[in-house]
Amino acid sequence: MEARLDLFGNPVAVKVLKYLTSAHNVVVGTKLPATTAELMRLRASQVNGCAFCVDMHTKEALHAGEDPVRLSLVAAWREATVFTEAERAALDLAEQGTRIADAAGGVPDEVWANAAKHYDEEQLAAMVALIAIINAFNRVNVIAQLPHAGDYEPGKALL
CA distances (Å), 44 to each of 5, 12, 48, 63, 144, in order? Predict the structure, then answer.
C-alpha cells in the first residue's frame, strides 16, 4: 500500500500531528495507568482498522512488559478472563466512545457509570481525551493509508 498523503512531509499534516501528539502527552502525564491507556488505544485502533496503530500500541505494550496473552485477547475482551473489572470498564468505554455513531444516544450511561466506579475525575478526563485523540490518529492514518504496519519499533514515536 502506498500512502495517499505524506503525513511527515506536508506542513499542515505535520503541524496537526504535533498538536495531537502534544495532547497525547497531556494524557500520558496523568495518573491513568499506562497499561490501561495502551489497552484502550489498542482496542480503539482495532475497531477503526488502523493497522499502523494496532502495530504501534501492541509493540509499545509488550515493550512496557504487558503479557502477550492479554494483548492477543483485547479484541475479544468481553469473553476474556484476563482483564480486571477496571480494565474491562476502560475497554468498554474505549469501544463505546469509538463506536459513538453506532449508538443513537452516544455512550450509554451504564458504561460511563461503570468506568466512574473504577476511575476518578482526572482519570475519566484522561480517558475521554485518550479516546478522542486515538480516534483522531486512527482516522488520519486510515484516510491517508499510512503504510508500514509491522515496521514500528517500540520507543520510536514518529513525532
Answer: 23, 25, 6, 19, 18
